[in-house]
Amino acid sequence: MGPVDGASGLSYIARSMGKHERLIVRASFPWIQRAFSWVILLGMGAAPIIALFFANWAGVANASLATLAILSSLAAALIFFVMRLYMQTTEFGLTDHRVVFKKGVISRHTNEIPLESVETVHLTQTIIGRLLGFGCLDVAGSGGTQLISPPMQNPLRFRTAVDEARTDLMIYEHGERPRPQDRSHRSEE
């Protein structure tokens, strides 16, 4: 999801990891959600200005039409900015110690569940979500802790990574084999 936060240039997840903690996977917003923000900017923002230009060229432009085009463009720019800011400042990731969710710019909301406390991971996908490869995860931890992800690209991959990390942790805690240092999961950017 959002790759950077703060002046350091590192994501919240990267800055909050312990010395021996490693990032397994970080979720990203669906491509359709990122594309939709651009559709709003171009459709509601640029199209009225272009229409105003042609109306002026044809000699039918007036002050009301100009005001409407400018207000529509400003509204589109504001909606685009808010959507992009949300996508840039929201993170949902998995380390070999915990599942992490963070959102916010000025006020920050974070929630984390240690891997040993994860009880269930539920996947919700609509028909369109299945066709386009996105969905939401609901991670439930012991004691009623719950993390609900925003829509993410490839949620099944994320859920599988959580299950594998939990299995690795259980095996490691029982001393059956050393904790693995590398997984094939990579951050989705």
Brief descriptors of the model:
8 strands, elongated, four-stranded antiparallel sheet, 189 residues, 22% strand
Summarize the structure.
44% of the residues lie in helices and 22% in strands. The protein contains 5 helices and 8 strands, in the order αβααββββαβββα.
Order of helices and strands: HEHHEEEEHEEEH
Number of DSSP helical runs:
5
Give the mean pLDDT. Answer: 86
- Strand content is 15-25%
Strand segment count: 8
Radius of gyration: 22 Å
For this structure, the quaternary state is: single chain
Task: Give a quick account of the main beta sheet: strands, pairing sense, barrel closure.
Answer: 4 strands, antiparallel
Shape: elongated
**Strand line-up across the major sheet:** 1-2-3-4
Residue runs with pLDDT of under 50 for 5 or more positions: none
- SSE class: alpha+beta
Cα separation of the termini: 7 Å
Helix content: 40-55%
Describe this entry's structure for a reader.
The protein is of the alpha+beta class and about 190 residues long. The protein has five helices and eight strands; from the N terminus they run H-E-H-H-E-E-E-E-H-E-E-E-H. The protein has helices at about 10-15, 30-60, 65-90, 125-130, 155-175; strands at about 25, 90-95, 100-105, 110-115, 120-125, 135-140, 145-150, 150-155. The strands form two sheets. It has a four-stranded antiparallel beta sheet. Helix 2 (about 30-60) packs antiparallel against helix 3. It is elongated and about 80 Å long. The model has no long low-confidence stretch (mean pLDDT about 85).
